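Protocol step 4 of 5: obtain the predicted structure for the target chain.
Materials: sequence only (see below). No template structures provided, no constraints applied. The aim of this step is simply to have a reference model before the mutagenesis design in step 5. Sequence pasted as it appears in the construct record:
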Amino acid sequence: MAKIIQAQVGHFRGVAAFDLNDVACDRDDNVILDMGKVTEVGRIVSHPTEVEDLSAADVHGKVIRRATEGDWNQIRNNRQKIRDAINTCIRKINDRKLEMKVIAAEYTFDSSKIIFYFTAEGRVDFRALVKDLAKIFRVRIELRQIGVRDRSKIIGGHGICGRDLCCYAFINEFLPLSIKMTKEQALPLNPSRISGVCGRIKCCMAYEFHAYKDLNKGLPHIGDKINTSQGKGKVKDVDILKRTIVVDLGDGKTTKVVFPQDDEK
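Step 4 output (structure tokens):
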């Protein structure tokens, strides 16, 4: 039975499955990966998992070895060269007056390709730029347009909570987010409160959404008119976590109503 691991490819790319290939390694180890056309460096982000059929596991290659000191010399050399590559790319972008901004770049481990990551307002015809860069570096060139969330994931930073951005620290795949999530959690619809540094809805809005959605079942909304034991009134405040509401009965009178959850009824 074969074993696979999940590995972060390169520094900025996604996580993919790889055949462990009987190499002795575990989570957080840095390994060299055979991906067919290129040899890459990756960091293992999972424990080995046994599978019966590798073809059904959607593997992207196999592990060659754990990274050696010689491999780290190659990695450090690639990182040093990439600074000049970015500066050269920026210069060529300015020469051709292209509306794009380079965010980062990286060599593949075997130095056979350079991947440039950039942002732009719309689509950019960068075919001439690719030819310019290929002539200079004499390797394959790939330009990837990324969104504002990917930009934050690459650059990093700190959220309003004071911690590293979730996308930079541990998120491998962005979840679909919507304004409905903030409404379900009774959060103020203030862009400065619900938006992350990328300008989009904070990724953490999705963490407790389903819990709030369950707790919200059966609760009225602010402004609804309901009947209570003390008379009819308008909902003034809702505490989702405690499942309590404050009802304005008029003439300065209020009452608190507790709504039990379904399993408590």
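Step 4 remarks: The two ends are 50 Å apart (CA to CA). Residues 72-146 form a domain with the GMP Synthetase; Chain A, domain 3 fold (CATH 3.30.300).
Proceed to step 5.
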